[in-house]
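Exam revision sheet. Question 4 asks you to relate a sequence to its structure. Input first:
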Amino acid sequence: MEAFLRMLLCAQDSGIIRGVRASMNGLNINQLFFVDDALLFMRNKKGEVEAFMNILNGFEKMSRQKINLEKSMVYFSPNTPTNQCELIRNMLRMKVVEKLDNYLDLLLYIRKMKSLPFKDILNRVIENMNSKIRRMWWACKNKDRGWAMMAWDNICVPKGIGGLDFKDLHLFNLDPLGRQA
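Answer key, structure tokens:
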């Protein structure tokens, strides 16, 4: 997948493919990788689709791995003309889906409340990291649950007022967000 990523980034850097913008002033993205799965983003231009297919074919030859087009799918923006959808579907040889709700528990189709799905992801990541820090701090030698001598909220209090000055990652993340506002 690393080689495939490099091929996509090289094509984007050289202007062969553009990808799509996640927001009005955001960067162009052309892929999101999850272990051995990938979400690929491209504009519905014939030249860009041809370039994308050339990258896929080049990756297959180089890696000797075959992309399973039967498991692959393509989703078109509702604004894409029907004849354009048909042309690109034939070029990609993938099934067309009408709706992409989520993928790996991530919301894919975002409308007006753009920040909502990302808040959920961020909160899950922060809670996961806080959980690992707690487990490491309170773990016993035999990996059993340890004895919590102080509440987590008190551990996150500054040392000067009786805490251990651990960072509450949720509050730590709010600080830079507050500076952006």
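Marking note for examiners. The two ends are 37 Å apart (CA to CA).
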